[in-house]
Amino acid sequence: MNILSNLLSKASPDFPVMDRPRKRVRGVELKNEAELAIMRQAARIVATVLKEISEQVRPGMTTADLDAYAEQRIRALGAKPSFKNYHGFPGSICACINDEVVHGIPRRRKVIRAGDVLKVDTGAYYEGFHGDSCITIAVGTIKPAAQALIQAAESALYAGIEQVKPGNTLLDIAGAIEDSVQASGFSVVEEFTGHGVGRNLHEPPSVFNFRTRQLPNLKLQTGMTLAIEPILNAGSRHTKTLSDRWTVVTVDRSLSAQFEHTVLVTESGYEILTDRTLV
Length: 279
Fold this sequence. Notes:
alpha+beta; Creatine Amidinohydrolase; 5-stranded antiparallel beta sheet; 4-stranded antiparallel beta sheet; 17 strands; about 25% helix; about 25% strand
């Protein structure tokens, strides 16, 4: 789930800030092996639910159907939906279709149709830690341009992940994502960023998808856990928020696509905790 950077330090009333972590670097928590074992399970639950949703989506379903399924499965797997009631958000998933960028509220009247580009973002809170991930799903047969956008968004995510290793920096991730997006001919949304994830759904650092001097260029260290999540638009990068105060759409009504993984910085590189190919 994306969130504006000024919300990153706030805790949800349903998921309070946990006890102080054992080690922090410039405000960023480093998880130990016991904590990472729990995070792996939280992330595995998220990966499982998203994989199941991707296999079940059909035209005629509603985003409320997907939300109900996700909540039931997350709870059945021993966790709580991270998004439910987070800052008042009503769903267990964010469900965005076509020109909807982020934070789409699941609704019974929002019917999924053949040819849609569907984004599903969800999180699971398990024994004190969160996992967070997003996928974009092609519903039935979609136009080649839409497929190219989806592929570009996923490629940008993995370009960023490939830069995750001790000694590299947040700008290494951001630059790789930006270069990948520019090469694809699409635009990267700048209003929303990735983030740290762990005891809290959103915690430091902000993980930008483009080069910026807005925040310190943190050096990555073993034990950091990051939600990396580039969002690409087919047209303008600019967005606006609808009257429901949650759903963000492209200003030019162009398509949008997003992928996200929770990623651990390891001693030798990275581990994708929300890897769906492992469930």
